[in-house]
Amino acid sequence: MHPFFNSINRVLVLLLSWAILTFSISALISSTTDASLLNCLILLTPMYFLCLIFVLPNYYVCRGLPLESTSWLMLLASHLLTLVVVVVMWIAVGEAYAGLLDTVLVNTNWDSLLGESLTINLAIVVLQFEIVVLLHYLFFAMEKTRNLEQDALRHKLLVSQAELNTLKATVHPHFLFNSLNTLANIALSSPEKAHRFCLLIAEFLRYSVAYSKKSTATLNEELEHIQNYLGIERERFGSRLQTNFEIDDAVQNIVIPALILFPIVENAIKHGIDSCLEGGTISIKARQNKSMLVIEVSNPVDELGRKLKGTGHGLSSVEQRLKTRYSGKAMLKTIREPGSFTVQFYLPADHNLELQEVKS
Length: 360
Description:
Layout: H1 8-32, H2 37-55, H3 58-64, H4 72-104, H5 110-170, H6 173-189, H7 191-211, E1 216-218, H8 219-237, E2 241-247, E3 255-257, H9 262-273, E4 280-289, E5 292-300, H10 313-325, E6 331-337, E7 340-348
Parallel strand pairs: 2-4
Antiparallel strand pairs: 1-3, 4-5, 5-7, 6-7
């Protein structure tokens, strides 16, 4: 359906505007011929409203020939052919209508009046056709701009929601509960370690809160945050938790989304180390492969051990953040093998993510 017919107000405005235009044209024809204004209105009003009916369907021609993907030769040929068809139909119907008037209102030579004003009328019809074509393309351009703005808004909302989910996952009450229990046990058994453990928790919370207000961080900053987290968990798991970091020096300062690694490492603890009776090693690797930064987080899996229930928000929220932040240029991949589970990130290493803070 033509967009003008989506609203009764648009239809009324269009009809009123066309009526004023028709009256103006009739006055012009009356001033250039011997015909009265009334006779010009009788002849031209139906003809110009018929012209409106003929030119509006050009909307579909314009929609089928978008400016950005159609050659100028094709545009000119198509619209010229449409114009010829409209003009021929309009003249044919106009002559039939003038002939009908000659049989009904015999006091005026309607065929003669149509012939005298035909040149001016043809020029006006051609001009109207061209204006309607331009208005249609203007409408499509505005519609495209509006869609782009809506897509950008949806993108921003998705990023904001993903950031909020990340913050919720970062300061999880269950983690704080475990940490405080561990601190209580350390204070009783090894008071000298309690101070260092408190510093680890304080630094972990400081980074979590500070970088929840930022969109990006360097890989090195993220890894330091992960090491603090693993240091806290190591006090709880003891020798059951081992770590292995293999980070290329060339990727240390590459910028990545802030707090992107924590949900993955937290899953590795919860579904890997905690579910394995003997624990295991969490391995984190980072390297550059051509234009991509590749990050791998691996953890052991006990196929026969107890299964811990999870919401699945960790991986899904990370995947959503990567999708919205990098516009589909990043990828998250999971690899499940006997005894191990690996999460791989592929991020554009040359993607220009600015280190900018989001003001609260």
